[in-house]
Amino acid sequence: MNAMIQFLNDQGTTLLYKTWEHLFISITAVLLGIIVAVPLGVALTRFKKAAETVIRIVSVIQTLPSLAILAFFIPILGVGKLPAIIALFCYSMLPILRNTYISIKNTDQNLLEAGRGMGMTSWQLIYKIELPLAVPVIMAGIRISTVYLIGWATLASFVGAGGLGDFIFDGLNLYMPELILAGAIPSTILALLADWTLGLLERKLTPTTTSKQSELA
Amino acid sequence: MLTFKNVSKVYGKTKKAVNSLNLNINKGEFICIIGPSGCGKTTTMKMINRLIEPSEGHILIEGKDIMDQPKVKLRRDIGYVIQQIGLFPHMTIGENITLVPKLLQWPKEKRKARAEELIELVHLSKDYLDRYPQELSGGQQQRIGVLRALASNPPLILMDEPFGALDPITRDGLQEEFKDLQQRLGKTIVFVTHDMDEAIKLADRIVIMRDGEIVQVDTPDEILRNPANEFVENFIGKDRLIQTKPGVTKVGQIMNKVPATIHKEETLSTAIKQMKEKRVDSLLVIDHEHHLEGYIDVEDIEQNRKKSTTVSEIVETELYKVKENSLIRDTIQKMLKRHTKYVPVVDENNKLKGIVTRATLADLVYDSIWGEEESEEELTTLQ
Ligand SMILES: Nc1ncnc2c1ncn2[C@@H]1O[C@H](COP(=O)(O)OP(=O)(O)OP(=O)(O)O)[C@@H](O)[C@H]1O
Ligand SMILES: [Mg+2]
What is the ipTM of this complex? Predict the structure, then answer.
């Protein structure tokens, strides 16, 4: 307990700063992942032949060891936040892409037929019907991605991107377990908080399908 | 208003689903397309709103080739109802109904008014507009499906087995309701079904298809009387052919044209005198223009003799009525089911035209039993 207070006194500001860095890296990577993977997932449902191949490639990326990917980007992008974000972005893709693709592909065909028959354009079908109905599944993918990424972002320290990983690596190098904990615990808390916030967001975004009346009943 | 000219559809390279189809559909006509599974009914129908593109030939709506119009615009001008209903679960009933008006960018107020106007057509209260599809029964959902197709008031509506997934009683009710609606609104309907009873009940003309070709196009009456060939005969079914007589007899042909009536402003004592004179226990209540208001029966008069004086005070307005062109067969079934003693017959404006009573039915049954035997005797003597 004393050790902890001592640590916070000495390193409180550093801890806050590292936490912020950590969050920045992971959130930027996830946002990039969403921006790329959601439209890509929707697009793939329109090109089913390409879909299998693309998803397989993305799955392969997922299986590469994270350190290897990070190392791979150093010669191209140097060190710092950029290669870390790009590497993490690669990891964020798969769950979001796969969930988007599957949920859009499984949209009730009758709804699409009805929509098309009533004269909705392809765009209207996507943003009025397919996406709203796919929100819960896509959000599940985003939640998984975010939680993983916050964990993996500790490795970003390896390419000099900062974040809570700095504590962990220092701890390993200097053989100071409390430093390892100072990195690991906040990162776990961040992951839990992120999951919880996204859960709230998911509930907000999921379209209603029952009226208030019957919720009460 | 709708014309098929040598329309064919080939799937892949060889599968001819529809073969050189020619058909002319008039404005306000109710057309049922019927035929065995896989004969090309759905394909024929979906070519009209270009959900399926014809491989050959032309389809014209009001003289304009559908291929010359943008798909999306074409579809917004044609109502469309599918068997699986397909209401959007994340939109309220109101939003579902006014989807096409929204696509057409009607202002919000106009859409709301339209939704309220429409929901009344199917006897549901306005509260339903704020509910979601999953909170409605199957029958209610398909009512909404039909309203959704009517929303922007398109002259032409396509329906692919819309009542196919409903239970028989719900289906029966909806068919009646819809036929009534169609006649009032003067819509042209192309209705795919595989249920001959449904086709006979609803259609002005039935299109019978087989292997992508039309076998016969005619009124239900004509098809039952003169099936074009053995295929049609088998398709209609022997039992229907035999019961053709009552099957296609319309209420108008056998109803009693002088029902016992009373004017709504008459007094109860006049009413009771009338009943005694005509030897009946109830009277149909009408107004000056001969519109049907309801009925009164002797028990009502008895109970209210002290409190009320005129007929209009105690008239019962809830009653089952039919039109002159309703099938007598359906009417009989309904009377038996509802245990009613009679059914008044009215026109579109609710003017009283006649009455079908159980006595009328006795005449009919008498005819069909003894009538049949007589003709059989004739046959024997001829042989
Ligand atoms: N997309 C398609 N590709 C290839 N063949 C098709 C396609 N759609 C329909 N067919 C074939 O074309 C024929 C006509 O099909 P259609 O759906 O019009 O029949 P239908 O009369 O509506 O049958 P049902 O009563 O079963 O609904 C069938 O033999 C069917 O197998
Ligand atoms: Mg079909």
Answer: 0.85
